[in-house]
Design goal:
alpha/beta; Carbamate kinase; Archaeosine Trna-guanine Transglycosylase, Chain: A, domain 4; 2 domains; nine-stranded mixed β-sheet; five-stranded mixed β-sheet; 14 helices; 14 strands; binds adenosine-5'-diphosphate; binds ligand VHF; ATP-binding
Length: 375
């Protein structure tokens, strides 16, 4: 079977000095991706650049800051962005397709299945799927606000072998190199830890939005679904092939996980959680290390408006997220049963099942405090 990869190109890699879309950069990436395609690799492209491509055409002097202006600029720019890709891939005899997605599209099983099927068909026909956020309808809560998370969800959805997040810096450094000139590059990461989020700063350029933090979050989501991830820079011909061959200028995130079954992937990464359940230390141990179900006795509280069948997040006393699961209790039933022994809990909540979250419906997403870094 041929290798399938997702390549994400950030705004910082696609813009000229003045902040507009650089057609030359678009051509460069189309050339790099076409070489991979010709060697038999299946490629999905997640690209930013709509705002960059559109803000001048709409009449703004500089990249806008207000959300509705960004949305308007993206609406103008998305067509221009696609036109640029169409032309650049056309030189190689390749057709492109536009796919616009928002967060809830992944949370809905029907919508994500349609997206998955469309992508499969496009790849089968040798078309390059080009994906961006649907900025017009992406309100704050529904927004990725950067395309890093979007690319990780796409990689999970399309069951990709690897995700390549291309940016303006050669990977993750021990500190933000803009602030600390002594920062060293981390070559390989096997486990995402809280420490990584600490050393990662925000966006480096005026056009990028996520910075390193959102790229690490993307790596965590992709790795959780069994997708190896690379974060780094590709600026010269041949460097994308080098990155795919493991010789890239950047940081490699490895994963020993195999692709999760579709349902677990949905629970762990694709669904939008409808609330949060807080648990005590005993329940934390049972969920993380005991392979057990979550029972009312270990619950200390809940927030949000959730119903049986919804995905909820589970957090410990410090508020750290441990994982996600499908709840069999509604929010009020969870609160009514919290801390009680089984008989009394089911009676108070008016339910017959004792498990609030069954272990088969549980996915651990807990992030360790520290892990080894390979510099
Ligand atoms: N620890 C770190 N290592 C590397 N880069 C970092 C780190 N912390 C913050 N950054 C910044 O993240 C930037 C890349 O993110 P961003 O500007 O959002 O790019 P993109 O548009 O490609 O998504 C880099 O230019 C860099 O300045
Ligand atoms: N979706 C928008 C913004 C996305 C964005 O800036 O993302 P990123 O370059 O990943 O920080 C666009 O295409 O301009």
């Amino acid at each position: 079977m041929s290798r399938r990869i997702v390549v994400k190109i950030g705004s910082s890699s696609l813009t000229s000095e003045e902040g507009g879309l650089s057609r030359e950069r678009v051509r460069f990436f189309a050339d790099e991706l076409s070489s991979l395609l010709k060697s038999g690799t299946q490629v999905l492209l997640v690209t930013s650049g709509a705002v960059a491509a559109g803000f001048r055409r709409i009449g703004y002097a500089a990249r806008p800051q207000q959300v509705h202006q960004k949305q308007a600029a993206a609406a103008v720019g998305q067509a221009l962005l696609m036109e640029a890709y169409q032309e650049a891939f056309g030189v190689h005899g390749l057709a492109v397709a536009q796919i616009l997605l928002t967060r809830p599209d992944f949370g809905s099983r029907t919508r994500s299945q349609y997206a998955e099927r469309t992508i499969e068909e496009l790849l089968k026909q040798g078309v390059v799927p080009i994906i961006n956020e649907n900025d017009t309808v992406a309100t704050d809560e529904l927004k990725f606000s950067e395309n890093d998370t979007l690319s990780a969800l796409v990689a999970n959805l399309a069951k990709a072998d690897a995700l390549y997040i291309l940016t303006d810096i050669e990977g993750l450094y021990t500190a933000d190199p803009r602030v600390d000139p002594g920062a060293r590059r981390i070559e390989r990461i096997d486990v995402i830890s809280e420490e990584l989020y600490r050393i990662a700063g925000g966006a480096g350029s005026s056009v990028g939005t996520g910075g390193m933090r959102s790229k690490i979050e993307a790596a965590r989501i992709a790795m959780g679904g069994g997708v190896a991830t690379f974060i780094g820079r590709v600026s010269e011909p041949g460097q994308l092939a080098d990155a795919v061959d493991g010789r890239g200028r950047g940081t490699y995130f490895t994963t020993s996980l195999h692709s999760l079954p579709a349902r677990k992937k949905w629970i762990g990464f694709l669904a939008v959680p409808q609330g949060k359940i807080f648990v005590d230390a005993g329940a934390e141990e049972a969920l993380l290390h005991g392979g057990k179900s979550l029972l009312p006795a270990g619950i200390t509280g809940a927030e949000g408006e959730f119903h049986p069948g919804d995905v909820v997040e589970v957090a410990n006393a410090e508020g750290r997220t441990l994982g996600r699961g499908v709840t069999h209790y509604s929010a009020w039933q969870t609160v009514a049963a919290a801390g009680l022994p089984s008989d009394e809990a089911t009676r108070r909540a008016g339910v017959s099942r004792i498990e609030v979250i069954h272990r088969d419906d549980w996915v651990t997403t807990h992030v360790k405090k520290e892990a080894q870094l390979h510099e």
